[in-house]
Amino acid sequence: MIRAIARKEWMELSRDGRFLGAGALVFLLATVGIAVGALHVRDSRAEREAGARLTRQHWLEQGEKNPHSAAHYGVWAFKPESVLATFDRGVEPYLGVAVYLEAHKRNATQYRPAADATAAARFGELTGAGVLQLLLPLLIILLTYSAFTTEREQGTLRLLLSSGVRRHQLVLGKALGVGLALAALLVPLFVVAVVLVVGLGGGAGVSPGELLGRLSGLALGYGLYLSGFVFLGLAVSARARTSRGPWWCCWARGWSTRCWCPGSRWTRPGRGCRCPRRRTSRGSWRRTTRRA
Length: 292
Known about the structure:
- The protein is mainly alpha-helical.
- Helices cover 63% and strands 3% of the residues.
- The protein has two domains: 2-35 and 126-262, no CATH class; 53-117, no CATH class.
- The chain contains ten helices and two strands, in the order αααββααααααα.
- The longest helix has 44 residues, at 17-60.
């Protein structure tokens, strides 16, 4: 029964123009983000290797001297960049890329990429992780918000329950159908990610087995993350009476606004933190008005 429900959901979603259009857009943005990330990792790795060679050359050309003086001469050490930075840079832009090593001193990392970024960098970068974390949950909401409300409005929900279908079978079948639709989008994206990482040089220095293992673990984590949104959307759809509730659109809009503009709730009037008002007693207010 679960398989039949999943097949029915898959057929409906595969014929839905909203899923096809939004899915193609998400796939395109994720592909562009991964390609840009792979190019960035390749260029950054080449620059760090060139800096390490130059630093080594300066160290060897300093001439004969006392070992203690040579230790005080110092040397630059460049931090290697992870392969997964092709997909998600994490906090890498806010950390330094090099540290100066010298005797009797502990120096902090320097040359943070975020320090040289413009104000537009506050809105985030186009990365594969950003697309999967922000846009794909909205696509899941689009696919699941009317999963049960449409059945209820058409009168087929009672027919399904009266025919012996249990509630958990109905939920699992619909979740599996949505999962198949997402798999049709994510599996090609996973293949494209592997090809771009290896082809553009982002996986240099890492064995294919290790690279595949890292990407598999990343895919498993995002699968669990997106599964939570699938069941959340189905739960809300099961609780709602109609599929035209404006509150759901407002919730999706507010959620997306918080993600793209985290500080927006502090700038809109009547929302978020309120400015403290100056408290005055009634007597002081009267004295002020009399003086005026």
